[in-house]
Amino acid sequence: MFSIIIPCHNKAPHIHRSISSVLNQSLGEWEMIFVDDASTDSSLEEVRKFEDRRIQVFQREIPGPGGYAARNFGVTKARFQWICFLDADDEWKPNYLKNLKFQIEKNEQIQFIGSAWEVSDGTTLKACSATNQFSSSSFHLLSFEEFLRKSISNSPVVWTSTACVKKDVFEKINGFPEGDCKSGGDIDTWFRLAEQVKVIGFWNEISGTYHIDSVNMVTRLGQTFEVPCVVKTIRNLLKERESDLVHLIKKYSNKYLLAQIAKSIKANRFNPELLEYFYGDLDWKKNAILKTFKFRALRGLYRQYLEKMGSFYG
């Protein structure tokens, strides 16, 4: 019933954990498509230790930023109509696929589903913010508007390793933005999917673990602090057609743009082009503050503030 796509680039220390979490699922109706994205460590050796006919291993010769090309390639090999994504350094809870199947069969109109997750830093576990927005172990049908509002309020309902989508819908939006961005492509993909299907399912039960202490993480390595994909997507969308939700869509864009600006300043790699994409008509105060970031001294003060806040995830 499910095709599970696992992209991998140099994740050898974590592969046993992620694949074992699939093998330990209480539902056995799945296939795994493991796409090695030109790893230079022992990732291939690790995955080949598993002997299960449901596991297929493919290799790409040139790695793609963010694993987007690897995921898209994996989807082309998928035999089942439902696609699940799992990063090679994350893991699932044992009943994840069983719960998904139950909700899919109960809600036939659903084409795109997210589930709650937890974040692990190797020492502590913290549930995602969305879990506080709904009753425990409940399933909800959210409109595109609700999807936007939850994300804007820092309670997104979709995370890559607990996202599930129908294959034909994924193909309709042209999948992940390979070649268009080096990071943040997941957020862009979820936005385009949510805008396409209009109704998003959310299962409020922690179904997976996001390990932020993993090796070779995209969120820590090789960031270019470019204009986020989703910001460009929204700019083009609003040029092409009108929307009743234009105010919320702009807010959604501003949220991820501001996060990118903060990350770039914290890394001392500020990209002034980012400022051009802020919708200042929504918040003149923030717009005025952003303009001051053209001055190095003020960016330095803000960087000191950010360093006290801790790390960004997602």
List keywords for this structure.
alpha/beta; 2 domains; single chain; 10-stranded mixed β-sheet; Spore Coat Polysaccharide Biosynthesis Protein SpsA, Chain A; 38% helix; 314 residues
Write a short abstract of this structure.
The protein folds into 2 domains: 2-211, Spore Coat Polysaccharide Biosynthesis Protein SpsA, Chain A; 229-309, no CATH class. It has helices at residues 15-23, 43-47, 68-76, 96-106, 144-152, 167-172, 185-197, 229-240, 246-266, 284-292, 296-309, and strands spanning 2-8, 30-37, 55-60, 82-85, 91-92, 112-120, 125-127, 139-143, 163-166, 199-211. 38% of the residues lie in helices and 19% in strands.
What's the SSE blueprint?
Blueprint: E1 2-8, H1 15-23, E2 30-37, H2 43-47, E3 55-60, H3 68-76, E4 82-85, E5 91-92, H4 96-106, E6 112-120, E7 125-127, E8 139-143, H5 144-152, E9 163-166, H6 167-172, H7 185-197, E10 199-211, H8 229-240, H9 246-266, H10 284-292, H11 296-309
Parallel strand pairs: 1-2, 1-4, 2-3, 6-10
Antiparallel strand pairs: 4-9, 5-10, 6-7, 6-9, 8-10
Helix pairs in contact: 5-9, 7-8, 8-9
